[in-house]
Give the backbone structure.
Amino acid sequence: MSDNPEAPVDLRYLREYTDGDSAALQELLEIFTVTFVDELENFKRASFGENAEWCAVAHKLKGASAFIGAETLRKLCARAQGMKSATVGEREEVCREVIAQYERVNNYMKDMKL
Amino acid sequence: MKIVDKQSEAELMGILASIRSHRNEWQVLKVMMQKSCETPKEEIARKIQQVYKGYEGIIITEHEDKIICIVRMGVIHNYMRIKTDLEERLPRHSCRILARPMTSTGLRQIQIDLMQKEDASVGMFSERERRKPNVLMIADDDMFVRKSIKQILAYFGEVVEAASGDEVLGTYINHNPDVLFMDIHMPGSSGLELLDKITDIDPDCCIVILSGDSVRENVLEAMEKGAMGFLTKPPKRDKVVEYLNQCITFV
């Protein structure tokens, strides 16, 4: 369980995987940040592209969010994944929400020195 | 319980139908003779036969240093208990025992033995049986997911990775992993398509599907195509380990 129920992340899975190895946990979080930021760029581009690509990137973001227990972020990505026939405007709006929530997650991890 | 020095069609046929219809009641015991054991293997086999007198199953003694027992003990929740019970009845420090449920892979192996196929698939299984240590594979297009799962797997053996559907088959053939954890949605071939291709070349493969969507259709399709299991992302560590232990070549 997360110590803080209001926290935008819950690292219980990654802590379990790394079995108390804080360097390994740190390394995983760094990989998360790098890959998530890359995928966010693809996500922004996909807002103007094919539905299938948009859904595929949203699915990937959803998976990564789940691993770090970022539940609000995961739900937003799940919503995006389900928007199979959305307009560009609707996609852009969700995209902005996802980016804003990612920033909350990222700031939280920085504040907590995770 | 019958002791056989070599698996024959008649013995395997005798238990196959029952394993097919009540697989969860069948257990596999690997009794590995310690080098220091002075008791002959045949005597150990007779002792095991005594322990499981009245049970359906076979005791296979064809391997030089191990005895394989396929026994219908009913549904078991505590495999450690089975192991320690048997250990107590065998000469002290004579054997190391592994007790596991009969897996779909095990069942497939029996079917292959029955068909006496001498194709590449049998070769891959035999190679895994002989090879030590374990080789474990993770296929996912998300590097973060691969590295996270790798944290669990690395404890148990060498880990190989595939980053796209197109890399999976080649990596699988090159490394012949004991277990493959595979995502469904990947660029190139999907996990479900790859299941068909891998089970064609290696019917004994142990594949666990990883997916963010536990859509009922996907789960059913994966199991139908021969996956050993299905895990929702992120999987619990214990669940991953549970699947590793179900793989018959996993040490």
Remarks:
- The mean pLDDT of chain A is 91.
- DSSP finds five helices and no strands in chain A.
